[in-house]
Amino acid sequence: MYLFIINPRSGGGSGQRTWQAVETLLKRRNIAYETLFTKSAAGAEEAVCGALSRHEAWEAAVVVGGDGTIHSVLGALQRMNVPLAVIPAGSGNDTARGFGIPLATGAALDAALTGRCTAADLLSGADGLTLTAVASGFDAQVAANVNASRYKRLCNAIGAGQLAYLFGIVHTLMTFKPCRVSVACDGREDVYETAWLVSVCNLPSYGGGLLICPQAKADDGLLDVCVVHGCSRWQLLRLFPTVFKGRHVTLPFVTMLRGRCVSVRFAEARHAIGDGESLGTGPLAVRCEPGALKVRFPQAALLALPAGSPCHASG
Ligand SMILES: Nc1ncnc2c1ncn2[C@@H]1O[C@H](COP(=O)(O)OP(=O)(O)OP(=O)(O)O)[C@@H](O)[C@H]1O
């Protein structure tokens, strides 16, 4: 039995359209499933636990949505020990990218139904669990500015949601000020006087494919950290195109770290996001929870994730 968790609003309405396509395929293939439509992140965990308690043997809980929707159900899936599968329907879909899950609906459904499982790490902190990355500073401010903007609604209305983030980057670049940050990684503390951003990653990308920590692996028991500091606005702007290929990591104003426990303390209040969702403006302390979540991924992605094993029903 599969539980489909659907956020119709994700991807500006793509969740609803994607579910309609999935439903047709499931009926055609005679697959047994239940559905849970969630209206907001608040209460999603409880609703998922309630739905999962009704049966013993779940093959997987399949999220039809984006990274934010996945974020809202991580605690429930970990608690109920049910594998996560994903049909990407968000705007970023970095969880899917990180596990080699295709963005095309039919192929993603195949992976959900016939894929293998890996025991993926999670980031755990005071604000709960995160699967992709916790980002603080400039990137999180871009997200906050875009979400509060009029241009986001305008761009979504004309079907150009990604354009809003380009506006957001330019808007934030003009107003954001770097400041001192202290980053402690497994007990070793470093201070950066003019830091733009600190990203703590479990998967390589966020923001719709920005390879901020290209070496991050979901199942290595470690968190990868990227600190951008000591550069001008102009240098930061020029850094962006290089992040699509992960080539920024060798730049002199980029420091990469790796560890199990990471804390980040900016000298001034700075926004933070986990899986793209707001975590407020306080200091961060996150640790890696190795192998905390089973995730289904396609057979074809086995080379990238060698720890794959057959998925077993859970209860
Ligand atoms: N379980 C949920 N059900 C309904 N709405 C949710 C749920 N979890 C989060 N949300 C809200 O829906 C918004 C959009 O969902 P989601 O983040 O999945 O899609 P997206 O933002 O389009 O894609 P992505 O996160 O991949 O960039 C979230 O920002 C959040 O406000």
How many beta-strand runs?
16
Strand content: 25-35%
State the end-to-end CA separation.
11 Å
CATH topology call of the largest domain: Tumour Suppressor Smad4
CATH architecture of the largest domain: Sandwich
Principal-axis shape: globular
Order of helices and strands: EHEHEHEHHEEEHHHEEEHEEEEEE
Largest sheet: 12 strands, antiparallel
Instruction: Report Rg.
Output: 19 Å
Return the CATH class of the largest domain.
Mainly Beta
Number of separate structural domains: 2
**Helical amount among residues, as a percent range?**
25-40%
Q: Figure out the total of helices.
A: 9
Structural class: alpha+beta
* Average predicted confidence as pLDDT: 92
Pfam family, one: DAGK_cat
Protein name: Diacylglycerol kinase
Cofactor: Mg(2+)
GO molecular function, one term: kinase activity
Give an account of the 3D structure.
This protein has two domains: 2-115 and 298-310, Rossmann fold, CATH 3.40.50.10330; 130-290, Tumour Suppressor Smad4 (Sandwich). The protein is 32% helix and 32% strand. It has nine helices and 16 strands. It has helices spanning 10-28, 44-52, 67-80, 94-98, 105-114, 138-147, 150-157, 161-175, 233-243, and strands at 2-6, 33-37, 60-65, 84-88, 116-125, 128-130, 133-137, 179-185, 188-201, 223-229, 254-259, 261-266, 272-274, 277-278, 284-297, 309-310. Strands 5, 6, 7, 8, 9, 10, 11, 12, 13, 14, 15 and 16 form a twelve-stranded antiparallel sheet that branches. Strands 2-1-3-4 form a four-stranded parallel sheet, sandwiched between helices. α2 (44-52) crosses α3 and α7 packs antiparallel against α8 (161-175). Adenosine-5'-triphosphate (ATP) binds at residues 7, 9-11, 38-41, 44, 65-69, 72, 90-93, 276.
